[in-house]
């Protein structure tokens, strides 16, 4: 099951040039994507790139036998403090793999990533954890 992490911070403003990368106006999050890229690399993850998607930002994670990463959604903001929601980007609890001609259970990867993301948020005093669970805020 997909678990969301809802956070708030003034640490991730819209970056110069970010608006030109956005597919949909107002979906900021590049600063948070770059932040998570650095933090996950420090934890030993291979994080080859971040990019803008139509729904927000994507942090690519290499290693699993399927496309995997962090989805970052920005929530409407009225001031300097922004709210974001992050989740794994596995897409489904099970993914068909043609190479092995079988199903891959994505839960071990998703659970490990969720734990790492929670630790990153909890370890940074400039990030406020607003909630974590299966419901999108």
Structure commentary:
The chain has 137 residues and is α+β, with helices and mostly antiparallel strands. The protein has one domain (4-133). The chain has 3 helices and 8 strands. It has helices at 18-21, 30-42, 107-123, and strands spanning 4-9, 50-53, 56-61, 68-75, 82-88, 94-97, 102-105, 128-133. The strands form 2 sheets. The protein has a 6-stranded antiparallel beta sheet, covered by helices on one side. Strand 4 and strand 5 form a beta hairpin.
Topology record:
Blueprint: E1 4-9, H1 18-21, H2 30-42, E2 50-53, E3 56-61, E4 68-75, E5 82-88, E6 94-97, E7 102-105, H3 107-123, E8 128-133
Antiparallel strand pairs: 1-5, 1-8, 2-3, 3-4, 4-5, 6-7
Properties at a glance:
25% helix; alpha+beta; 3 helices; six-stranded antiparallel sheet; two-stranded antiparallel ribbon; 137 residues
Q: How many individual β-strands?
A: 8
Largest sheet: 6 strands, antiparallel
Order of helices and strands: EHHEEEEEEHE
Distance between the termini: 16 Å
Biggest sheet, spatial arrangement of strands = 2-3-4-5-1-8
Low-confidence stretches: none
Radius of gyration, rounded?
15 Å
Structural class: alpha+beta
Task: Determine the strand fraction and express it as a percent band.
Answer: 25-35%
Coarse shape: globular
Number of domains: 1
Give the gist of this structure.
The protein is an alpha+beta fold and 137 residues long.
């Amino acid at each position: 099951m997909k678990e969301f992490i809802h956070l708030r911070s003034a640490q991730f403003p819209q970056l110069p040039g970010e608006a030109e990368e956005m597919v949909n106006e107002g979906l900021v999050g590049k600063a948070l994507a770059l932040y998570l890229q650095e933090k996950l690399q420090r934890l030993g993850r291979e994080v080859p790139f971040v990019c803008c998607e139509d729904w927000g930002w994507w942090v690519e994670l290499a290693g699993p036998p399927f496309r995997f990463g962090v989805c970052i959604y920005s929530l409407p903001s009225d001031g300097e403090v922004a709210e974001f929601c992050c989740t794994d980007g596995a897409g489904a609890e099970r993914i068909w793999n043609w190479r092995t001609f079988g199903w891959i259970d994505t839960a071990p990867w998703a659970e490990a990533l969720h734990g790492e993301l929670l630790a990153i948020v909890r370890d940074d005093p400039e990030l406020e954890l607003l909630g974590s669970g299966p419901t999108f805020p």
